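Entry 14. Structure prediction run on the chain below.
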Amino acid sequence: MKGINGLILAIFLALAGAAFNFLYLASRSSDVNMVGFVAIPEGKEVKAGQRLTEDKLTKMEYTKRDANRLEKSAYPYDVRSSLIGQRVWHNLTGPTLVLRDDMQTPLVELNFGRNVPEGISERAAFVPVDTKKMVASLIEPGDEVAFVVPPTLGSRPTLAARPPRLPAGKTDAAKAEPPKDSGKLEPEPELAGVAEPASGNIDMIGPFTVLSVGNRLNKSELWSANRRPQLSESVLVVLVRVKKVKDDKDPAGKEVFLPPADRLMGLIETLSVTNAPGLTCLLYPRKPKSEE
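Output returned:
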């Protein structure tokens, strides 16, 4: 009986030893199979806008298990040569990995007009804004904004709502003469789609997605880091949608702006007629990346 118990104990100890040995060898093999990633060495710094150079890059090694978590965000060391000469858009101080987000490159053209519903088209509308009343550098392409309607423009006509031009030979004095068919002066037309707000309220038009701030198609830091000048920030380029409408008089159809773009275009038209200053806007909260 004692012999059997001893044999069972020996077998148990042998199995336990084999298991521990296997775990030890597995951990050692993971240490041996190290994976290298591109990094900035200790004591080196690359400032925003500077290009990566050979002397400012090194290899930072991780176990294969940790490397699996880094492969989507960091650069494997074997692609190091492709990073040399590229600019980073914010400061990197070693020791630190060079991440893909550090190497973003700015867009070079407006991005719109894709994946829209059938029968709908997208356009880029240029909206003048008053940079004395807003900080354009805080607005990024992709943000949503609403434009504030100045109360003083609430009753002014648009070009489309102007009285008809006088016939040839008529003088300016004829403007005050009532039309023969009506016998009375027509009231001044209101700005289409833009009503004067009630006391204490603000009339807004929006929201609109920002395509660019002047010529800037990315966030300010990224644009500056790539040595691109920021121009015309007094103009916001926003996304508007149009729909083609056909009728008996115009079988080919004409494009009409969909709300709220119809009100915005009427307001822009009035600004050009009255030489009024640019608009101001309200910025909506940005959605977390996980919700986009």
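The first helix runs from residue 2 to 32.
Filed with the rest of this week's runs.
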